[in-house]
Amino acid sequence: MMNALWKQGWRPALVLILLFIVWETSVSMFDIPAWLLPSPTQIIEVGITDWPGYSHHVWATIQLIIVGFLIGSGTGIVVAIALHLVPFLRQATYPLIILSQNIPVIVLAPLLVVWFGFGMLPKIIVITLVCFFPIAIALLDGFRQTDRDLMHYMQMAGATRQQLFWKLEWPHALPSLFSGLKISATYSVMGAVISEWLGASRGIGYYMTLASSSYRTDRVFVAIIIIVALSLLFFLLINWLEKMTIRWRSSGEGGSSDAS
Amino acid sequence: MMNALWKQGWRPALVLILLFIVWETSVSMFDIPAWLLPSPTQIIEVGITDWPGYSHHVWATIQLIIVGFLIGSGTGIVVAIALHLVPFLRQATYPLIILSQNIPVIVLAPLLVVWFGFGMLPKIIVITLVCFFPIAIALLDGFRQTDRDLMHYMQMAGATRQQLFWKLEWPHALPSLFSGLKISATYSVMGAVISEWLGASRGIGYYMTLASSSYRTDRVFVAIIIIVALSLLFFLLINWLEKMTIRWRSSGEGGSSDAS
Amino acid sequence: MTHLEIQNISKSFGENEVLDQLNFSVHQGEFVSLLGPSGSGKSTLFGIIGGMILPNSGDVILNGESIKGKRGSISYTPQTPSLLPWRTILNNVLLGQELTGKKDREKALQMIDRAGLKSYENSYPHELSGGMKQRVSFIRSVLSPQSLILLDEPFSALDEFTRTDMQKWLLDMWEQTKRSILFVTHNIEEAVFLSDRVIILSPRPASVLKEFQVPFERPRREELLLSDEFLQFKKEIYQEMRHAQV
Amino acid sequence: MTHLEIQNISKSFGENEVLDQLNFSVHQGEFVSLLGPSGSGKSTLFGIIGGMILPNSGDVILNGESIKGKRGSISYTPQTPSLLPWRTILNNVLLGQELTGKKDREKALQMIDRAGLKSYENSYPHELSGGMKQRVSFIRSVLSPQSLILLDEPFSALDEFTRTDMQKWLLDMWEQTKRSILFVTHNIEEAVFLSDRVIILSPRPASVLKEFQVPFERPRREELLLSDEFLQFKKEIYQEMRHAQV
Amino acid sequence: GGNDGEESQELEEIQFVLDWTPNTNHTGIYVAQDQGYFEEEGLDVEIIMPGEAGADQLIASGQADFGISYQEGITEARVQDVPIVSIAAIIQHNTSGFASPEDKNITSPKDFEGKKYGGWGAPLEEAVLSSIMQQEDANVEEVEIVNIGDADFFAAVERDVDFAWIYYGWTGIEAELRGTPINMIYLTDYSEKLDYYTPVIATSEDMIENESETVQIFMNAATKGYQFAIDHPEDAADILIEAVPDLDPELVKASQDWLSPRYQDDAEQWGIQELEVWENYAEWMLEHDLLEDPLDAEKAFTNEFLPGEES
Ligand SMILES: Nc1ncnc2c1ncn2[C@@H]1O[C@H](COP(=O)(O)OP(=O)(O)OP(=O)(O)O)[C@@H](O)[C@H]1O
Ligand SMILES: Nc1ncnc2c1ncn2[C@@H]1O[C@H](COP(=O)(O)OP(=O)(O)OP(=O)(O)O)[C@@H](O)[C@H]1O
Ligand SMILES: O=C([O-])O
Ligand SMILES: [Mg+2]
Ligand SMILES: [Mg+2]
Predict the structure, then answer these.
(1) CA–CA distance from E272 to each of A124, E17, E197, E200, E217 (Å)?
(2) Is any Cβ of chain C less than 8 angstroms from the Cβ of D139?
(3) Which of B36, B117, B199 sits opposite E51 (nearest CB)?
(4) Given CB atoms, is A32 within the 8 Å cutoff of chain B?
(5) Would you say the C-alpha torsion A62, A65, A71, A77 has a positive or negative sign?
(6) Does D51 touch chain B (CB under 8 A)?
(7) Among C180, C147, C178, C152, which Cα is nearest to C73's?
(8) Which chains touch E (3 or more CB pairs under 8 A)?
(9) Cα C115 to ligand 4 centroid, rounded to whole Å
(10) Where do the structural domains in chain C lie, given as residue ranges?
(11) Where is the ABC transmembrane type-1 domain (chains A, B) (predicted)?
């Protein structure tokens, strides 16, 4: 496991390190002031010394991400299934789904606050809105692409609508589901940060806003790095889950084309 | 064509009309003040009378959307192809791609403006950032799912890497590409609106911000309705393009299962 | 007693007339083979019986009731194996039972063994050869509980010995359970060896060209294949089909 | 002159030993058939010759050069038709030429016609019957320019008449162009009727059990099938294979 | 106006960033543009709404030449080495304060106790509340502070928030227009140190050092603009409405009417800033742990570009 991580990880690590080096040297070469763009070493230093000051923000955001992503992807899956199984629903509510992706947060914010107050709920709603869409679209398209021959067999063999779905369409759409989950996992982190604009007193988004309003660019960058790290971690987790779930495919690809 | 549009369109239209009716009646029933949530009739009225005042904003945003979406989806496609064809690149730059999705606009905005000024460029960059990701992820997953048997045949028959790609993997991934394009088309509209926060003097996002800051909630909703209508239109366009492109599948599905 | 009755079925895909006033029946517990040129409409007919494809006219009667457009009344081996790629062989074999019956792992494992696929229970379809997949698909339909089995060229990818072995096994099972079988094959010998009756279809648009009652005693032994009566009977069918195709 | 040489090829998938020290060759312009039980490793061998699968040991020599792991040297009819679902029949047939040669629409259309698929040029694969798809896949490989053709059970889904017709056509083409052919079939009659030489493989792990030089004159006529020598020769091969499998 | 094309080509291009959306704080700039004051000075000024970009960094980095900022911001920014300088106070006295719907009965800082304050989560807010509540021996611990993020005043008080921090000249006027009367508690009524300059016109140290001539002529025109707005509130409002037609005209007019007399207020000249005000506020911030280091107040602002002042 550790070994596999290393094998997969050294290349991106290398690229990141290279990126940091370029960044560091250009900051010192072009004499960019820290308030505009701090250097990586400065950021890391602040990140380490300030850790006790912001760690609780990180945990708060992680909680929000997890809850929001679970609810958001759950919603996406349920919506996709419902729309797939009930064609009338699909045709009728497609516009509403697109609509949901186009209500700007500045407009939604006051309404959400008036309706749901300043607690967790409006934040979860924002993350859900951000997360469910890529999953729903990808999953719906996955359902639609179910293999013709397999469908034919299942129907001939008397599969009920439900069996057809659970035994054929659902497993067949799993790769598409994971494709959507990967997009959403990444967005859920951003969604959590944005949702913290809806009034939060904790969380990395809150920390970042404060840092930004007091011109602590170095702290802003600490926040960004944490956000990016969280997304990466989350993405990798989904990737790993995909590998665990869709074993029949990944194991097969090695076997059938083992010539270079 | 008109007929087909009607056949597809009456259900969503019905749902939208129902939604408007519910909205209208609840606004008047619960006596919701117009500054919090105006009624549809109010919005439509303002939308019609103010049209000369904001039409140029709409055109400006449409331009931005089109240019941004083209560049953004182009980037997504190129990135996916490059990462697919060059495995080293894929492994090395995945984190950078996720990173690109997690730089909050409030942080990016000043940097973009500092680097690129107040023109078109930083706006296009924002839309591109928003658009390319779903396309790249969906397309990459599409490439990976290429049919095993077909791959085997093509390789046996001596297809070069390029032929394998253009004659097999690319057409095979087209449904996935369209799945990504649909997600991105929707986001590109939102991306354009957000990008107008980067210092604009035209555009529907600009119009909405002004309306919001002078507490003209009715105009804010006019803006939202325009944004949603644009997204819908754009989504339908992609859907139609998909139908035109992937004829072999859609035409087939009717034929192979013509029992109810 | 009549189990299945095909009544005046016609079907065309667009301009392409495939089935033209097709009429025949299968009795309870009967083994009937269909012979017909490639592209004549055999698989289409199976699709109609299975309720997947609606005919343009005519009706399909099972046990006295119309099953036109109704699914789930038959057990089916499709022409291409159609295994679910994410299921192991064992779980693929159990699929038919999952859909319309009760799972019987023991019996499934026995059958996998009998078909020469021992040690492949936990393999995935892409790890099997063409003939092995076909056998898996065959077992799946034999395990399904329906009393009418449709087999669409189930042994076409097998070598002669495996094929003969599978034929014998099929006959054994059929004699024990007395389910009705409708069998599509391109192999005249196989049709005659297995069936009570052989139905010859004309080229497209297909209608019934001729029916042959197979006169040989059961149980049938391999020796029959070399007997003169058998060869003579085969030849008769061959001539009939050749006549139609030229 | 030796065209293709299989030298000591061994291959296993994990624990599963499939090919064991396989050795044989195909001469320039020779027609060689491979007969072997289902699952013995014939398709795997084709994969190795085509450069798709690397053997654990041994080498593949084409025209004196090793083509182990090298692709594009052969023209191929896979066991499953493997047509691109988004291409029409005509464009599927042209695919082989697109990959390694020059497109010849005229010839492609002629061949589609000759295979009994006239009026299907612009259909999509899912609109074709099983046997029709197989013929399309066959035409595709015959149109490809390579001088060695690998055919993996190309006629298994065809009725006897269409099959005989395709066989004759294949022989005609082969006699005109003198490309080398390696042909996998489960039909002993077909193997003997078509080939210069028949190679019998043992059950898994496969090695060459025996080679038969086919003694019949060319061009071969359908009458040959009914001759005593032919039946005798068939029987010999049959016995040899039966022996190995029991 | 009336310059022909040739002359306008020689105009110096200037970029001016607002703080957020255009409003009556910015009227003088729009007037100067509309009335040709900038052009007379040889300037071609582009007014930019920065959106999320935030004006201060843009000004400090030279991406924009001038812009709108605040004393609070500049104080914190300068302590973080951001080289930005205030060159004119747009409004002499702080017009912000804590507003609440009249029916909440919040008329003095004492009434804050037991109520819910809706803010944006900055430590500054608690300090300010604490400062003015101390005057009446009230305890800030008794106030529940919630972060309402992007929600506006009207939406926030519709829910469970009791009071929030607003600029009377815009949000307060809007409340008047809506006929929803509010109680207003101005910061200046309870603490002198909190009578800071908000908003101000700012530029970068670099501009002052290297392009003082441009700064001077810019300020000449801007001063004329604000003077016009002081003298002719209605005309000035019309100019703003014409320049930004998407604003609500009614609100602009009422706001302009309220604000025009307050630009200069009791000062001897529009725009003037006093060292004491800068020192007081920075001190106050330092006392409340809101600043990491003391501010060098003399460098944070200058009056030298106001017309009539000796340069
Ligand atoms: N979905 C479809 N759309 C259009 N035409 C179809 C479709 N399915 C089958 N056909 C046509 O119907 C005819 C009969 O096809 P069918 O598959 O029933 O033949 P078959 O007798 O099973 O042949 P084979 O022995 O080759 O499998 C063919 O001409 C085929 O092109
Ligand atoms: N990708 C793979 N992974 C694991 N095992 C495989 C794979 N491909 C083939 N095999 C195994 O190799 C053996 C030979 O398979 P192959 O397809 O070559 O047989 P074949 O001779 O072509 O049989 P058939 O006549 O049934 O087509 C089988 O036991 C099969 O399970
Ligand atoms: O709303 C934003 O995407 O920042
Ligand atoms: Mg068929
Ligand atoms: Mg094989």
Answers:
(1) 48, 21, 10, 10, 17
(2) no
(3) B199
(4) no
(5) negative
(6) yes
(7) C147
(8) A, B
(9) 23
(10) 1-74+148-155+178-246
(11) 58-238
Asked if residue C60 lies in contact with residue C7, where contact means CB atoms within 8 angstroms, the answer is yes
- CA-CA distances (angstroms) from residue C236 to B39, C216, D189, E266? 83, 15, 20, 121
- CA atoms of A73 and E304, how far apart (whole Å): 60
D77 CA from centroid of ligand 5 (Å) = 11
Homologous superfamily, domain C1-74+148-155+178-246: P-loop containing nucleotide triphosphate hydrolases (3.40.50.300)
In angstroms, the CA E180 to CA E170 distance is 14
Element (H, E) at D81: none
Q: What is the pLDDT of residues C67-98, one digit of tens each?
A: 998 988 899 999 999 999 999 999 999 999 99
From residue B159, alpha-carbon distances to D102, D142, E140 in Å are: 14, 16, 76
Please tell me the distance from the alpha carbon of residue C218 to that of residue C196, in angstroms, as a whole number: 9
Side chain identity, residue B143: F
First to last CA, chain C: 37
Helices (H) and strands (E) in chain C, counts: 8, 10
The residue count for chain D: 246
E207 residue type, one letter:
M
Q: Report whether B176 contacts B142 (CB < 8 A).
A: yes
CB of C28 within 8 A of CB of C2?
A: yes
Q: What is the mean pLDDT of each run of 10 residues along chain B (260 residues)?
A: 64 83 89 82 92 92 94 95 90 79 71 75 89 92 89 90 93 92 89 77 84 82 89 87 76 32
- Predicted confidence (pLDDT) per residue in E90-123, tens digit: 999 999 999 999 999 999 999 999 999 988 778 8
Interface residue A258 vs chain D (CB under 8 A): yes
Concatenated DSSP letters of C194-241: H-SEEEEEPSSSB-EEEEEE----SS--GGGGGSHHHHHHHHHHHHHH
Q: Which of E240, E114, E103, E94 is nearest to E166 (CA)?
A: E94
Could you say which residues from 138 to 167 on chain A have a Cβ atom under 8 Å away from some Cβ of chain D? 148
Residue linked to tokens 């940097």: B111
Long-range contacts of E135-139 (CB under 8 A, 24+ apart): E135/E109, E135/E190, E135/E191, E136/E108, E136/E109, E136/E110, E137/E110, E138/E109, E138/E110, E138/E112, E138/E113, E139/E113
Q: Tell me which chain B residues have a C-beta less than 8 angstroms from the C-beta of C51.
A: 259
Joined together, the tokens standing for residue D74 give: 């052969």
The superfamily in CATH containing domain A56-246 is MetI-like (1.10.3720.10)
The neighbouring-strand residues paired with C60 are: C6
